[in-house]
């Protein structure tokens, strides 16, 4: 999988060389290219934003550098692009979205700042590429960079070969194997820590009973924290 990221803050993406995503890059499973949007500005100040037509607070990202940046990524791509525009005005990014995007071959993240990108760039993307405007949640970040980091991590861990034991994906929160319940609580050694013991059942070796207990815990947790996820 190829991932292109376009941003005015390429340094935000240094953490992608760490941990699981870094290992996937090192193994050649994914290839990440971070592009500085200012590469495609042509004035002395490398301007990427301007005041909004119609007035209002804040600045809007100018269309010209975005057009050239997208043309460049398209020209150097091997296949069809899927463009992701992180925005608080987008559809929610969910585990289902992460699975859908993990099956694509070329993702492009277009990170807006300020009040966002000129709408004509977004319309151009919808016309020319498969394009998703996605929100991480109902809060506002300063730009698309942190949202991109989160989405890239959620997507890359689902790409085959990235996680050593793919069974662990089936048992986590929001996965189909869990019927989209929140994950049950986990414990490891020692059996007693600061007066708190590991639930007896987990030491019993009775796998059917353990599975039933975990399901009960997952359901209770989901009911308490995210009742809207329960269908019955
Ligand atoms: N950019 C700013 N806020 C965002 C959010 N909540 N999700 C995705 N991108 C964003």
From TrEMBL:
Tagged with keyword Cell division: no
Keywords: Cytoplasm, Methyltransferase, S-adenosyl-L-methionine, Transferase, tRNA processing
Domain tRNA methyltransferase TRMD/TRM10-type: residue ranges: 1-231
Entries under SUPFAM superfamilies matching the protein: alpha/beta knot
EC number per UniProt: 2.1.1.228
Primary site of residence: cytoplasm
Reactions mediated catalytically: guanosine(37) in tRNA + S-adenosyl-L-methionine = N(1)-methylguanosine(37) in tRNA + S-adenosyl-L-homocysteine + H(+)
Chain residues that bind S-adenosyl-L-methionine: 112, 136-141
InterPro entries on file: Alpha/beta_knot_MTases, tRNA_m1G_MeTrfase_C_sf, tRNA_m1G_MeTrfase_TrmD, tRNA_m1G_MTases_N, tRNA_MeTrfase_TRMD/TRM10
GO molecular function: tRNA (guanine(37)-N1)-methyltransferase activity
Keyword Coiled coil: no
A GO CC term assigned to this protein in UniProt: cytosol
Residues annotated as transmembrane: none
Domain of life the protein comes from: Bacteria
Gene Ontology biological-process annotations: tRNA N1-guanine methylation
Segment forming the signal sequence: none
Compartmental location: Cytoplasm
Family: Belongs to the RNA methyltransferase TrmD family.
Role this protein plays: Specifically methylates guanosine-37 in various tRNAs.
Subunit and partners: Homodimer.
Entries under HAMAP family matching the protein: TrmD
Matching PANTHER family: TRNA (GUANINE-N(1)-)-METHYLTRANSFERASE
The protein's name in its UniProt record: tRNA (guanine-N(1)-)-methyltransferase
Organism: Tessaracoccus oleiagri
């Amino acid at each position: 999988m190829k991932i292109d990221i376009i941003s005015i803050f390429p340094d935000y993406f240094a953490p992608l060389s760490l941990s699981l995503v870094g290992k996937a890059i090192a193994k050649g499973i994914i290839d990440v290219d971070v592009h500085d949007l200012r590469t495609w500005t042509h004035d002395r100040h490398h301007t990427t934003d301007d005041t909004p037509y119609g007035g209002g607070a804040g600045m809007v990202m100018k269309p010209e550098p975005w057009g050239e940046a997208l043309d460049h990524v398209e020209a150097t791509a091997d296949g069809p692009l899927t463009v992701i525009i992180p925005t608080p005005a987008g559809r929610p990014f969910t585990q289902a979205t992460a699975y859908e995007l993990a099956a694509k071959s070329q993702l492009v993240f277009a990170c807006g700042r300020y009040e966002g990108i000129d709408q004509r760039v977004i319309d151009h993307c919808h016309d020319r590429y498969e394009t998703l405007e996605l929100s991480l949640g109902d809060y506002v970040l300063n730009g698309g960079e942190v949202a991109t980091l989160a989405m890239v991590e959620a997507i890359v861990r689902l790409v085959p070969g990235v996680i050593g034991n793919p069974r662990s994906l089936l048992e986590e929160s929001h996965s189909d194997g869990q019927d989209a319940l929140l994950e049950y609580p986990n414990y490891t050694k020692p059996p007693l820590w600061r007066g708190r013991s590991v639930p007896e059942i987990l030491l019993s070796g009775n796998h059917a009973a353990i599975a039933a207990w975990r399901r009960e815990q997952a359901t209770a947790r989901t009911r308490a924290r995210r009742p809207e996820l329960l269908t019955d």
